[in-house]
């Protein structure tokens, strides 16, 4: 969860850098001021200098963006910055004329009048920058939210997998073997820094552990433990993702802890599933508001797109069922 929050922060920081006019091809807010000191305004570049920052932003959001969505976001960003370039081109001659007039101003009155024109241009440019920031922010917000949700779901499953394997309490010889597999997978996943790819790597590693290290009976128990852990971790991460007030979160956490204890005592997976469903329903009805409950269910019912290598032994799309 912490890594996904960091990814979203990077994305938002890139957004602010883009929308703030940095390397955008438009004159930064101080550029008009420098004209009055005799500096020459920069001409609008022929290329799109914001493209590199835009593509880096898209890379940060690649967890959840389909190719069509990437194209849509790229088009939205490009359109906004093209508008900024157009503004500079439209006012370039006026800026050049003001520079020349300022250089030859013969009186304070002339300099004052020209200064007022510069101030007006500066106000227009500031307004353009604010509108640009707002437009890109509105365009990117749904994508950032989707990326954060999928990252949280991925981390919920990663935590669930670690818990399920530990709860098997395997002998030392088996533990040594599975730790080597997971250590190698962990080293590869650390190179990606992408929750979707990390999850795919760890799913494949756990499948290898299941096939090469566990006995048939252990594998069946692992499947049952994993289904239980995934369901509870998803609910827990869904609540964390919504950033509920402390009192609400404490009530929901108590429901989850009590339900988890009961599932450990359940006689079969059907009873476990019933306990999980009851806990989920109790949180929705007795803890969350209507809007919160809708977000809670949306988080729980969506899968992590693009994360491959789910275990062959059991479907994880419906935890707790055979």
Keywords:
75% helix, disordered N terminus, 2 domains, mainly alpha
Please tell me about this protein's structure:
The chain has 322 residues and is an all-alpha fold. The chain folds into two domains: 2-143; 167-301, no CATH class. It is 75% helix and 0% strand. It is built from eleven helices and no strands. It has helices at residues 2-19, 31-36, 51-60, 67-103, 108-166, 172-190, 195-212, 216-242, 246-264, 269-286, 290-301. α8 runs parallel beside α10. Mean pLDDT is 76; it is low at 1-47 and 305-322.
Summarize the topology.
Elements: H1 2-19, H2 31-36, H3 51-60, H4 67-103, H5 108-166, H6 172-190, H7 195-212, H8 216-242, H9 246-264, H10 269-286, H11 290-301
Helix pairs in contact: 1-3, 1-5, 3-4, 4-5, 5-7, 5-8, 6-7, 8-9, 8-10, 8-11, 9-10
Provide a concise account of the structure shown:
This protein is mostly helical.
